[in-house]
Amino acid sequence: MNPQNLGRRRSKMRRIFKSLIMLVLCTVLVIEVIPVAYGQKKLAIGQYELDEYEKLTGKKISKFNEAPMLADLVKQGKLLPIEKRLPEKPLVVEPYEEIGQYGGTWHIAEPINYHIYQLRHELLLRFDDPTARGEKGQPVVRPNLAVSWQISKDAKVYIVNLRKGVRWSDGEPFTADDIVFWYEDILLNKELTPVIPQWFQSKDGVGKVEKIDRYTVKFTFRNPNPIFFETLYSNISEPMVMSPKHYLKQFHPKYTSVEELNKLLKAEGFSAWNRLFLNKSDYRVNPDLPVMVPWQLKTKPGQMVQIMERNPYYFKIDPAGNQLPYIDRIALEIVSDANVALMKALSGGTDWGCHFIGGLNDFPVLLENAEKGGYDVATGYTVDGITAVALFINQNVKDSKLRGLFRDKRFRLALSLAVDREAISKILYAGQSEKRLLVMPESSPYYSPEQLKSALKNVEYDPKKANQLLDQIGLTKRDKDGFRLFPDGTPVAIIIEYRHPPGSYQGDTPELIAKYLSNVGIKVALKLESGSLLATRTSANEHQIVAINISGPWHPILNWNFLPISIGATYWAPLWYRWAVSGGKEGEEPTPVYKKLVTLQRAMLEALNIETRRKLVTEIIRTLNENLWIIPITTYPGGAHIIKKNFRNTPRKITGLQNFYHRQPLYPEQFFIKQ
What we know:
The chain is an alpha+beta fold. It folds into three domains: 3-120 and 284-381 and 638-673, 3-Layer(aba) Sandwich (D-Maltodextrin-Binding Protein, domain 2), CATH 3.40.190; 125-249, Alpha-Beta Complex (Dipeptide-binding Protein, domain 1); 387-633, Dipeptide-binding Protein, domain 3. A five-stranded mixed sheet has the order 20-19-21-18-22. α18 (449-455) runs parallel beside α24 and α23 (592-606) runs antiparallel to α24.
């Protein structure tokens, strides 16, 4: 099926979309309520401490098993026996359907290596159900790489006890030394970490890490830092458990001589030690980096098929004592765009795909080809209220005329009113996305109805009012093509930069935005960037407007791209952000409103109870929505997912949270390919 035919087929099938999507959703809901049991007691899918599992089920796990490919290595003397590879008390993962089978390759095709990002998360702590609530309305948190923790009443001191016997993928032990190395030699090294992340600071400075013993770490802050606990089960804290000292110290000048480092720099083609270190510490590009996740990257950058293979030292088992994961390897084929990924899925070339296959409008096409392709069609959604695309208006843009324009609230309001969100929803999301500004989803512990009120203002399509506002500003002159001019006769032309791959639902949104803005006389040039280049440009204040998603406002405090003192603030106020985090030593002094936001955020970070934090979050959101520095266009309602019929232990409704290990709540280590 070529792209032209695919496009015609999509258009034809949209007429029957509504009935089909309801049929799929109803089917999914039926599947979801079927109980799954193992042993003498039904347990929910999830992970349990070994003692806890045995107590709940009455079953003793006394013998461990391993994948045949690992058993062969043990026989050859190339790998330790399974008993020596697992920790003293491995975690037990209750599978979604049944005990799985070892072996096979999980095939994926998508435009970028996003699954390598999604499947990497193993943190100190974790939680499974984003909607479950424990004490004081907080999520229910479970042990992971840490077995227990203690927090002082004033939230200044955290003691974390690590799981004894956990090993990196090369067999070396994971200990307190690794976390101290991350703290002393990476976090506090300005060449590696120019700006300390907000989550590891309190009002009066950076936190402190101490090794109590081989498996105990103490974190101390000068002021209350209640949010730190929540970072321990968020991917924000991932670097502290992804920095193996025994491997990375060879690239650090504290441990390696200048002469040896220079040899490495020459051999690897780097000009500075910090660039070499950052490359070697990146699991996405360095297959030699030891990890603790289920699968480890095995291929070098640039290859069109990225291979990940099982981690022989992974620290989790199933109820039968089988070391996880079940699947031997993952083969991720990098294709040119989302249409090619969709065609791969239609022909059965993807076993389980949840990104860049397509949007909701692809449901009919996928359903029509399901039997031939040998797959099920699944619904996918996030519970974190993710915004598919938002405009970030740079308040520090270098061009003086654009800066005056961008700081005029009437201009920002005109941009919001000029875009037909309902039409974009129909074109890209089958009418299923919502038009609103920033708001926590109802599933978030930080949601309040007051936030929704502010989010529903200024989102209606009103080009007449948009034109009136632009005229009021003084942009009444137009060129021969109808585009507006500044009073001096120069064109009002803006550049919108974005990073999404061509052909994806998010990648199409900037084009539609540009069309609507041109209808009110604003000339727009679109510029597609790689994620790394866009991050570099925004940090250097080289951009004008960015169109990008807002990742996971389910937890606003850990969200990285809309708070005033989070790294994502570089999208809309890079110089103000720099001023705030440097204590006024760098950047540009911000407006009083931005200073107010900074004060609110810092108060939020120190508030000891969730009720106070919720009120502060609501005030921040109200202020952001009122000022429209960030203009959300559409929410992300979910997408079309495919799952091969023999790809088991995965639900047919996919959930995830952006800042909380994405798809890890599904426990991909217990997926298996049924023979």
